[in-house]
Design goal:
It contains eleven helices and ten strands. The chain is α+β, with helices and mostly antiparallel strands and about 400 residues long. The protein has three domains: about 25-135, Acyl-CoA dehydrogenase/oxidase, N-terminal domain (Butyryl-Coa Dehydrogenase, subunit A, domain 1, Orthogonal Bundle), CATH 1.10.540.10; about 140-245, Butyryl-CoA Dehydrogenase, subunit A, domain 2; about 250-405, Butyryl-CoA Dehydrogenase, subunit A, domain 3 (Up-down Bundle), CATH 1.20.140. The strands form three sheets. It has a four-stranded mixed β-sheet with strand order 1-4-5-8. A four-stranded antiparallel β-sheet has the order 2-3-7-6, covered by helices on one side.
Length: about 400
């Protein structure tokens, strides 16, 4: 059957094609953030990684940058940025020091943004000022020794009401900023018999009796970002520190995880950008057989593959975070954002690992040396396939959402 020309729809005319790149304002913000991050954190980054040592004034430097509480309104001491613009902070710092970016993200997105989105006005006014001026460090307590991928079903930490307070008992592990955190958003079971539906969220201060933490763990990568365990032994938490309603913590957790995956992908993008930049610089300067190695087709092939992976990552990550921008408190954990944020973090983590692997290969023996920046990036890339839900869990989320449609 043929279609006559008159049966075709009218051409749309001069409609602008969608732009999948940052606009001028976002580009200026990213450039300014990158310059600020370099001036404050580039010096000594390698030694901090080798020593596994967080700078004592790290959060003071972040406060000087104006990036603490990036997505929190100015009335609470934040920068008042939308979530997408705040994500550019993670990308910028990720270009300079993945350890600093990791600790900033745990503080600013997992703790501060979560507290702002889900806390009441009393809690916001009590805790946000200290968290946004750098005097207090934030963290989130979710993972447990026997509850990693099964964070909900395997959770053993409990909170029992005792008068005007709750008594927390249990432990959390692999907690970014755990050894130095002053304020932790902790998930615990308030009704164990209800399983996943009996979880609540609490704001726990280091000053509360019965709360302690381990020294920093010795990690393969992002070594300067302190990671440790948290312990609760009849830790008395005022009832006013319950976030939202009792037994309604899953909604807080799941919406936070969706935003976390989209948000953390931005740091992965920044790390990947730096790995590609270092590889191009080395390919231009390294001489072998009388010519620069960038003139060899094998090296050119590697650089081309790295570029494709980086630009694919950029488009998916920006799209996911833009989508997360519109997610309200308690709205995550299902639907398109649940699938898209998992996809963005899954692809970003795996692509970053490939990019950093090729970067080390291009650098050869030099890249195998522990004290080089490309080696630091390689070691720090692996956690991007594990933290925030392993890449296997991310695949399950995507598939389940597809099958539910």
């Amino acid at each position: 059957m043929s279609i006559a020309p008159e049966d075709l729809p009218e051409p749309p005319g001069a409609i602008a094609a969608p732009n999948f790149e940052l606009g001028d304002e976002h580009n200026r913000l990213l450039d300014e953030l990158t310059r600020n991050a370099r001036s404050r954190f580039a010096h000594g980054a390698m030694q901090r990684d080798l020593d596994g040592c967080w700078p004592a004034d790290g959060f003071s430097r972040l406060a000087e940058m104006g990036v603490l509480g990036a997505s929190v309104p100015q009335q609470y001491g934040g920068a008042g940025l939308d979530l997408f613009s705040a994500g550019l902070v993670g990308q910028a710092i990720g270009r300079v020091d993945p350890s600093v970016s990791t600790s900033w993200q745990s503080h600013d997105n997992l703790c501060v943004n979560n507290l702002y989105q889900n806390g009441n006005e009393f809690q916001r006014r009590k805790y946000l000022p200290g968290l946004t001026d750098g005097s207090h460090v934030g963290a989130i307590g979710m993972t447990e020794p026997n509850a990693g991928s099964d964070a909900l079903g395997g959770m053993a930490t409990t909170a029992v009401r005792d008068g005007d307070a709750y008594l927390l008992n249990g432990s959390k592990t692999y907690i970014t900023n755990g050894p130095i955190a002053d304020v932790v958003l902790v998930y615990a079971k308030t009704a164990p018999d209800l399983g996943k539906k009996g979880i609540s969220a609490f704001i726990v201060e280091r000053a509360f009796g019965g709360f302690s933490s381990s020294p920093p763990f010795d990690k393969m990568g992002i070594r300067a970002s302190p990671t440790g365990a948290l312990y609760f032994d009849d830790c008395r938490v005022p009832a006013e520190n319950l976030i939202g309603e009792e037994n309604k913590g899953v909604a807080v957790m799941m919406s936070g995880l969706d935003i976390e995956r989209a948000f953390c992908s931005m740091m992965v993008l920044g790390m990947s950008e730096r790995a590609v930049e270092l590889s191009v610089e080395y390919a231009k300067s390294r001489q072998q057989f009388g010519q620069r190695i960038g003139d060899f087709q094998m090296i050119q092939s590697k650089l081309a593959e790295m570029y494709v992976a980086l630009e694919t990552m950029r488009g998916l990550v920006y799209r996911a975070l833009a989508k997360a921008n519109a997610v309200g408190a308690g709205e995550g954990g299902r639907g398109e954002i649940h699938k898209l944020s998992a996809a963005a973090f899954m692809y970003a983590g795996e692509a970053c690992m490939r990019i950093c692997d090729e970067a080390v290969q291009i650098h050869g023996g030099y890249g195998f040396m522990r004290e080089t920046e490309v080696n630091q990036l390689y070691r720090s890339a692996k956690i991007q396939e594990i933290g925030g839900g392993t890449k296997e869990i991310r695949r399950l989320i995507i598939a389940r959402e597809m099958l539910a449609e």
